[in-house]
Amino acid sequence: MKYIVLGLGHFGRSLAVHLTEQGHEVIAVDKSLTIVEQLKDKITHTVCMDSTDREAMTSLPLKDSNAVIVAIGEDEGASLLTTALLKQLQVRRIIGRVVSELQKTVLQAMQIDEYIMPEEEAAERLAMRLDNVDIIDSFKVSDRYSIVETRVPDKYVGMTLKEANLTNVYKVIVLTTVKSYDRSVKGKTVHYKEASGIASSDTILEEEDLLVLFGELSDIKRLIQKAG
């Protein structure tokens, strides 16, 4: 797939590099020549350009891209001008980065339905981890439901999912189990996680495994607190 990432701050460059590593074709744009030069070997294509310049932007394959991501964070004015320009150029899928409620309101007024708030989402996930040390990671699916990664409670080690009966007892669904391990790569210790695939009633809950749970956060916390 083909993506265009506009703005190569910490978020934009990380997104562009990850998409490239996943095999996608990425055109990454920033007005800083220094940043563009630094990343040219890590991203498919890097371009030094002012994304608020209409003439310059029309040189990009906007209509051929699966999505254009406005990753500009520091300069809200430039972010909104860029988004408005993309809207005028009838780009079919625009994803905006939001750093304030006002910016979010303006994007909604432009009828930009896809936006991300990476700082807020990261803060929310960290707050959940700090609130409960047994939660490794999490994200909200909706206002009611979350997906949470947690350690297998001692009470259930050695049981199958059928024996644990977590869905009936706690109203949560186990999506998968995850093995977590360290491996030495070029003299450095690298941490890996490997999912076991979609969980079934025969899945055995082993010590040191992680559970990936889906359900209401209150039910997931109840499981962790009562079974820990």
Automatic annotation (TrEMBL):
Q: Which GO terms describe its molecular function?
A: monoatomic cation transmembrane transporter activity
At the top level of its lineage, which domain of life is listed? Bacteria
**What is any one GO biological process for this UniProt entry?**
potassium ion transport
The UniProt record lists the RCK C-terminal domain at 134-228
Pfam families, per database record: TrkA_N
Which intervals hold domain RCK N-terminal? 1-117
Q: What is this protein called?
A: Trk system potassium uptake protein TrkA
